[in-house]
Amino acid sequence: QAQTTMKLASATINDVQHEWQKVFAKELQARVGDAVKTEIYPASQLGAIPRMAEGVLLGTIEAFTTPTSFMTNVDPRFQAFDVPGLFKTPEDVHAAIHNPEYRKHLEEMFLDKGLRVIGAIYNSPTVVFTKKDVTTLDGLRGLKIRTFASPLQIKPMELLGATPLPLALTEVIPQLESGGLDGMLVGMPILTAFKYYDVGKNILDLRFAEIVSVTVVNEDWFQAQTDEVKAAIVEAGRAAEEQVFPWGVENVEKTYKVWSDNGGKVNELSPEDQAKMEADFSKLAAELLAADPAVQAEYDRLRALVDAKAKQ
Amino acid sequence: MIWSLAVLPLLLLAAGTPVFLVFLTAVVVTMMFVMPLPPVALQQVLFGGLDNYALLAIPFFVFAGELMSTSGIAHRLINWAMAMVGRVPGSLGVATVAASTAIGAISGSSVAAVAALGKTLYPKLVASGYGKERAGGLLASSGAIDIVIPPSIAMILYGLAAEQSIPKLFMAGILPGLLMAGMMAGFVVIVAVRNGIPSEGRFEPRLAWQATKEAFWALLMPIFVLGGIYNGLFSPTEAGGFACVYAIVVALFIYRTMSVRDVIRAAGNAAILSGQIMIIVAAASVITWMLTTQGVPQAIIAWINALQLSALTFLLAVNVGLLVIGCFLDPTSAILVFAPLLVPMAIALGIDPIHFGIVMTINLAIGMFTPPFGLNIFVAQSVTGLPAHSLYRGVGPFVVVLVLALLIITYVPALSLMLGSQL
Amino acid sequence: MATTESRTVKQPGGTPAGSGFAGSAMGALHTLLGVTLLFVVVVNFVNAVSRYLFGISPVGADELMVYVVIWAVMVSAIVSLFLRSHINVNLLPLYAKGRVRHFLHIIHDVAAVVACGYATYASWLFIGRISRLGVTSMGLELPMTIPHAALLVGFAGLTLTGAVMLVRDVLALVRNAPHAEVRP
Ligand code: NA
Ligand code: NA
């Protein structure tokens, strides 16, 4: 039996993405033995995020696990997951992406780009890390906040009166230390993984978006496998995300605890501020979505699933 | 794979083939005959080696160095430093080390520092009796201080790959960086005394005042750049660009030592030297990628693991291993590949990961000027025009001095942790 | 400037690189590269100052700088190959005289043609596929074909330059032509 190598790449390490890859490798091995040799490359060992994305598109890397926000330049429909106000809890994410019918749709929705989704997993909430102690929406006014160069991060920050600055990752800490930056929009586990409590102590937990990570494989490579292997990859992917979901939720809870244990503070908005922000963001979401019908359609599907869960 | 990735490159290197072609030919021959890989991977990885924001520090600081030497800023700075330390034996050598340390506080890239300093200081060092070899060796090795003194691109990458606090790493680098500078300066003084290099001039308040007045705008340059970084006006990468702007303004409007044409010519020279450096970085990144995907780092780690070392012998093994690896990989890619693999082992042995980061950084910094490969050697060679074998001989003593410093820093963790743990 | 001016290059064939069409082309490229680097310095300055003073950071300024520098790197690689000023370990070439040196140059030229030729082919395949996929950059939303094309153009230029030099060096070896000391 011919052995095939499957390189799984990601930008982070020891987080839910890495955990998914490890469990996936085990699940796959249980199904097909040594027919597929998995190799896991965390921490950007195979290059920066845009290079890994190109790698999986062209087949030099078989699989790439990443937050959806880093794939929007490959296909704008990846934006649907990051629309402010869509996912507010891990359970929202679970209800949508693990819905069997949606999951099947998700798997095949990027085939026209040569990518197949084999894993979708709850990653973490997006929070605002700040050096100053910020507890109100007004407190964010005028602060220089590092974001990704994505409208889904830039626009919400602008709406709150903050100044979004899409800086390169290597520049962030020196700039935070010197006051060139006041804070950053970031996934919660990143803050504890890189020990940001040595830089600043405050988090404003806005709860307006949850990061979703997907694992995409190169479709040409996938189709070159035997039917048995193909089925095993799909099954292993689904099994891994079911197993890792609780791990991910617990991991996020743990990071909040690590943050507090190291003297960090977690602030929440007053109910009035929270309501105002959510109302503003839903208007913004409508505007952003109106610009792209394909994203809107995807968002509507997800929205319906989240709302259905809320009704239960 | 051995002949195409080791023997062939050494032959090509010895034949004087451009270094980027040495790497690229090794990769291409391996891809064509030894290990079939999709050709598109070559483009993807080469491009990835260049598409890196932090690399902008190279053209910026190379240009700043070119401007400083052409405009006379560097000349005035050195005269000032000499007037201040006039009496010390080997004063110019000591001033060179001091200048590297100062540039270290501004920039985060070792090659850029060598390029910036080499141009001005090499002829002066030779003229004051150091000999070409030693002068070249001093310049090539002094760049190592740059990535240990914060800010440091290598430490930022270590922090990201090993999940460690970057501010702590920066703090932890200060004392080891100063120790390295101190030991190099001490060595330079010994050489000067033994070779009877006269201490130039002597300290006279009147001369010192005169030199200070003449160097006023030049002295303001490091103050402007450091002040800008530490007040958040610009990042360490951007600082190089601001140093260029400052030097252009001084050269055009205050000293009037350069015309607009001169500035463009200096920029052209800087662009060409930066291009020569960066294409080597890109080609080397393909070698890293090949080794990584072939599981070479994992094999090395498994081998170290199997030795069942104690913390002390583990650190020694890592030092030896990284000095060898530093000959082939540039520090940034070596850190990205090895830090995630080595750090868990270090932690399991009770080694502080911040201390370990400093040890790794210094190791790879030394690797940049140990023969036969090493970006700092190549750049020093290009800036000084010295033949490679002269530089190989010239860096020898400094390799010994800095390896000694490395051993002290390795086995006295307090040096790294004293400041770092105060955060 | 002294160091640059004294960095002479050895070139077979007897015609100095500094004269004629090739010479003025190199001079023009040198100026173009200088102006390009100055442009990047200005973008860097404007970006940092506007961020500090007004809190405005033009989206994609970092990408613009990086991509322009990538283009500059590839163009300067061609210039340096033509002028034989690329960074190398100059041990053997320094002592080699006559036919031996011509022979070493032929080795360099062959390496350039083989390695850069293959890289050109890889670039060509890559760009063909990436342009069909329509991937854009994150900040500027520029088609990724544009920055990637720097390598295609660069390596094609390097291959071509290497091939021209190979022909000249083989002829020089056959004729055992003297080596000319020329300045870039
Ligand atoms: Na530094
Ligand atoms: Na070396």
TrEMBL record, chain B:
It is a multi-pass membrane protein. Pfam families: DctM. Residues 10-415 form the TRAP C4-dicarboxylate transport system permease DctM subunit domain. GO terms for molecular function: transmembrane transporter activity. Its main location: membrane. One of its GO terms (cellular component) is plasma membrane. The chain crosses the membrane at residues 6-33, 53-74, 94-117, 138-158, 170-193, 214-233, 239-258, 270-291, 303-325, 332-351, 357-379, 391-414. It is found in: Cell inner membrane. It comes from the Bacteria. Keywords: Cell inner membrane, Cell membrane, Membrane, Transmembrane, Transmembrane helix, Transport. The complex comprises the extracytoplasmic solute receptor protein and the two transmembrane proteins. Part of the tripartite ATP-independent periplasmic (TRAP) transport system. Belongs to the TRAP transporter large permease family. This is TRAP transporter large permease protein.
Automatic annotation (TrEMBL), chain C:
It comes from the Bacteria. Its main location: membrane. InterPro entries: DctQ (IPR055348), TRAP_DctQ (IPR007387). It is a multi-pass membrane protein. GO terms for molecular function: transmembrane transporter activity. It is found in: Cell inner membrane. The chain crosses the membrane at residues 21-44, 64-83, 103-126, 146-167. Belongs to the TRAP transporter small permease family. Part of the tripartite ATP-independent periplasmic (TRAP) transport system. The complex comprises the extracytoplasmic solute receptor protein and the two transmembrane proteins. This is TRAP transporter small permease protein. It comes from Oryzicola mucosus.
